[in-house]
Amino acid sequence: MKVTRRELAAALTSAAAFAQAPAEAPPTPAAELEAAREQVKANAATLAQIEVPMITEPAFQFKA
Question: Is residue 63 in some structural domain?
């Protein structure tokens, strides 16, 4: 059986289209907010584990 390149490409693209997983629904704003809060908590916990010596602190204050 002879298969041309075009027929092979058409068969592969149609098979790939069927094999793709269905797209997930975009997260709701409330879910995005909760995920962001969890990320901030995780980052804060990670930073709290690191001790910074006083010598590395800047010798100035930020004033508005």
Answer: no
Q: Is residue 55 part of a domain?
A: no
Backbone angles phi, psi at 21, to 5 degrees: -75, 150
24-57 per-position pLDDT tens digit: 788 899 999 999 999 999 999 998 998 878 777 7
For the entire predicted model, the pTM comes to 0.46
**CA distance readout (Å), 4 to 10, 18, 27, 31:** 10, 22, 44, 49
CA distances from 22 to 14, 16, 29 (A): 15, 12, 21
Residue with token string 């930020």: 62
